Please model this.
Amino acid sequence: MPAGKKVNTKQPRATNLNEEEIRRIKTDTGKPVIGYLCCFAPPEIISAAGAIPYRITGLPGEDNSAADAYTEPYGCTYVRNILARATRGEFDFIDGLVISHSCDMVQRLYGIWTYYHPLPYSYLFNVPHQVSPWAQRFYKRELGFFKESLEQFTGRVVSPEALVEEIGISNQSRTLVRKLYEQRKKLLPGISGSEMLNLLMAGGTLPAKAFQAKLKEALLKAEAAHGQESAKPRILIWGSIMDDNALFRMVEEAGAVVVADDTCIGFRVWEKDVPQTVDPYDGLTEHYFVNFQCPRTDRGPGSKRFDYLVERAHEYKADGIIGYVISFCDPHKLDYPDLRDYLKAEGLPMLLIDDNYSFEPAGAIETRLQAFVEMIG
Amino acid sequence: MSQSEMSRAKRHLETTARMKEMLPRFFMRMMERRFSNEPLAWCMVGVPPELLKAFDLLFEWPENFGTMCASRLVAPRFIEVAEGDGYSPELCSYVTNTMGYCKLFKEKGEAPEESPLPGGMGTPAMLLGSGFICEPRWKWFQSVATRFFDVPVYSTDPLAPPWDVDPTDPRIAEHYLTLLREDLAGQIEFLEKQTGKKLDIDALREIMALSHQALAYWRDTLALRRAIPSPMGSTDYFHAIIPQMYLVGDQEAVDFYREMYEEVKNRVERGVGVVEEEKYRLIWFGLPPWFNMGIFNYLESHGAVFAYESTYNVGDYFEVDLSDPLEALVRRTWQRALKMHEFGAEAMPELCNPAVFGGFVGSNLLEELTRDFSLTGAMMHLTRSCRAVSFGEVHTRNRFAQIGLPSLIFESDMADPRLWSDAQIKTRLHAFLETMDKVQKGVNK
Model:
């Protein structure tokens, strides 16, 4: 097998940049940092409790062997990567950890991490797997328990007013993200997919004002862009967590543009505002649970569960879908055959990249991407 | 793997050997009813079989069907069909076995001829899932109903409190009990709609009473395995779970477990063990390799006997008040959650449940089992396609290292014999037995 080139050496990784930034912010503000994985536990509550929410990300392709002392090799490589990083002490800037019962492996990461590397604060946010009325009621009660635990840790009461304010601030960010995504509908999008992903990763990291400044800057640039380039094949990327833009860059280098996405850190977090409800916890339940399109949540049988994705593909005029699934990612891998067939019926070609969270061997992935781009071009 | 490497299990108890007559009788009764076009439900473990029985519903267990396909070595045929359809080889082999079976069923319009049961699993009228154990279960029936059988699906979601939450806090208990009650009510509403029958509470109470009688005998039988020599091995254990799945609530099941208890008790009194010279007393973690259950007999031929298995203790007996059978079902689930909470991963590592994974602090189940069952070693089967069971075995190994008990993790699968490497695995098993020899000699010095 030819050695693939190391895509990650091409530019600084967003994860590294964000971690440098959060260390500085923590020093400046003196606030505790609460690391979180997945979005079922709303970061707005963490902010309202006087802490800084920080979305923990991994470093694809890095050595995972530090996880071997605690976990089996046959497990999600993303989870193993995070655990290896925790074992090496790379998350020494976080004071607390919030993990949602999103998928099995992430949920188990909580037990292993907190047993072997305990933190001053940790919370497992339990999430039902379906959106029945009783599941929604459970989720809302769970929000209350989560709030109480944060209050005990930070010593600050989460008032409804403070929570509404935090929701309002994050909704401002969502408005800006949506405006940027509008720019991606243009024949020549004003912002590349790889730039957009890096921005959204900053969204899980930076204080809202700093994030919004970055969004506004990118928006100005995107609105001013009037390229003369001819149209390129347009790609929507679907799949497992994407916390490194390497694949996006590979797609772009193959001659296509990434115009939309459906991955963990992507648009799904920002697509819609948190509804402003009389009880703010109702709005959070609707946004982070009922409407949150993660395949781990059962939305009943039938292909209609993918309608949102097809609509998005049409909205952004995608010519094809590239699926990216990480080794041992059960929710995505089990959805793939149903999704592939549905997309085919809808006239949308799909390519699946099955990766061990390393984007290696890069040459083999690039060859497949090039062939797909040529096919749909 | 080659077929010659696989061997069927030899059971030691006369009671379990009689299952060969008992279960076909049951399947024949079921077949007759199927031919009368009675509705058939495909179900997952975690759906209370007592409830199915109370609705007098025909049911089948695709997971159990997977074990049968594995033991008859036809699972690879179905799994390969599923892989050709786009299902990853990494996915649960029970799921891919079902998907391949369904695809062939739909293509042929009838059960594939390779099916281990006459008529296969039949055509489902509904799918009853449960998120009780793992995440693939949520996608499994969703996909069966999307791709193959367009029938209604109801899945229960029996969540349990995470290990670092106090379940004895009344607010926490009510938080979870409320979900369990509402979920059960939804399940009953679904069953009443699909069957056109009202739930007969009195019938459910009687069924649960019989079911709990059977489970109590099962509990007492397992406790007898503390005896030296161990009177019952894994081949009997893994097969003896089946009557509780199919014959729940029948007097026949109560009789079966009572007779098994009496037989095992008699063996203890007479000092009859699984092997003549019991050199190693082991605990088993993980799903068994259903395609090669003879591996247990192979180990027995070297004096190694399993006195305890962590897997399939899900049917544990719990004291509940049966006067309100619906509340009893809820409380049984809750009692199980509390047990998992108390012992964490050490109790039932096969459950991907927040209560299970992490609750290691303060747990002493492994110490108790080692002492009570006089264990000399632990063997863990890392099933590549089932992370629900496997992810956690390294931690369990770490815990045994603290206790000073030798342990081994070896890799294969529960239903896919393509992942069985006979020479490699047996070499590892032998090396482990030698390790235990050295440890035991060291202890005896």
